[in-house]
Amino acid sequence: MTTLHPVPSRNDQPAGRTGPTGKAGPGAAPWENEFPKDVWHARALGISARSQVTVHFENITRPWLKQLAKRWARWRLTTGLTVESAVLGTKAVESFNAFLDSTRITVTGTADIDREVIEGFLAYLHTHSAGAPSHRIRIGQFNTFLLTMRRHGWVTDLPSTAQIYTEDYPKETVRQPRALSEYVMAQLEDPENLAKMASPHHRLITVILIRCGLRISDTVALTQDCITRDKDGAPYLRYLNHKMKREALVPIDEDLERAIAEQISYVNGTGNSGTRLLFAHDRVDVYGAGHISASSYTNALRSWVRECDVTDENGSPAVVSPHRFRHTLGTRLINLDVPQEVVRRILDHDSHQMTAHYARLSDTTIRRHWEAARKVNASGSVVELDPDGPLAEAAWSKQRLGRATQALPNGYCGLPVQKTCPHANACLTCPMFITTADFLPQHREHRTQVVQIISAAEARGQQRLAEMNTRVLGNLDRIIQTLDNGTREGPSHLLEEDNRAGR
């Protein structure tokens, strides 16, 4: 049987000890009221909650396991972790309880949790959540639960084999950013559609998510003093990045600054004049005034998208969530050639790894269109490049480097950057020249200029100049004809895929 150390009562607290509210003595009373319950309310405990305000224990049916889960959740909350963290941990214990319901292995307390039980639990999680983000989260949270019980001596009979090792975790799936396409974003950013969002709270939240890329939980918790300025007077949005537990800044424009000022006036005129919150409730609940929840905004967003009949390129209803605005901003910035370090700072990522996802997505999109596009050389002949060949990766790297260092107004240079080009300009007689239909307008304009040069040279009797440009004119005619044919015959799905990628 599990040996549990007794939960301290208020009388066992040392003098001057503070609870989560920061108050001594009587500050422990809320815990005495809430701890026995199967549902804890964060505000009743004096804890400022964000997207989640309750922790549920009713699905943990084993008394010994529920007692430990509650003690762990209380300890995490009193050390400053968020309600979301406590919920994630409790759900991991709840999954373990469900596993015990499904197995014939006898587990009556922590003394029975050995390696055999751990392996059975891992198999249970694999069956029920393989491939889902919650899979690794459940394993990690339950491992923390075991380590915490052992470290703090909450039980004395937990076997040494009750451990989860690094190799027990499933391989993490690298997920691409889920940016919304520009086709969808054009509908969402349409002023007429934004005006259909009845609540001024929800309307401003939407604009902040789109322009600043904040997480929804950080957005709804913004305070009225969220605007700050640098020495040049430029405005920034200041917010608490709860995931990184630090303040962060993102530059904004005057329009958004003005909208925030209007929101402050609106909130202070609805009976919440004493609040610090930017998105305070229009009413006061039993736990006092708080900000609107992330879930209520998410529901309002979905209803608004349906009301505005926002569709994707195929005419299907668009799938929009608050976090996809963050992915969209990151993708937009990368596609605008904003340096990756700048994007990392704007999105306040803790490492370059997450920001690199956006850069990889952009590079993949550019490469796919380059490989699918019809490419011709200076003589108008089609250039075939094998995207699956043994040198495909190296060839693409050379092409990207060439784009960055030898950009031409009407095509691309295929010459390795280590070599010196003998031509002073984008000469259409160079065998290394490559172009695509993207440059058809330039080629047509160039052709008009060449015809004018030939006419003037012939009028002045400059036969050599006329001959040189006649060769260029022939190449231009072949290039334009080949690219025109390729445009008419090319795959029509490229534009659609391009829109989906948010380019």
Automatic annotation (TrEMBL):
Domain of life the protein comes from: Bacteria
Gene3D superfamilies (UniProt xref): Intergrase catalytic core
Record's compositionally biased regions (Low complexity): 14-30
Region annotation (Disordered) maps to 1-33, 484-503
Q: Where is the Tyr recombinase domain?
A: 175-371
* Basic and acidic residues: compositionally biased ranges: 486-503
UniProt keyword terms in alphabetical order: DNA recombination, DNA-binding
Any single Pfam family the record assigns to this protein: Phage_integrase
Chain segments annotated as transmembrane: none
The UniProt family comment states: Belongs to the 'phage' integrase family.
Q: What is this protein called?
A: Integrase
Report the source organism.
Pseudarthrobacter enclensis
Organism taxonomic ancestry: Bacteria, Bacillati, Actinomycetota, Actinomycetes, Micrococcales
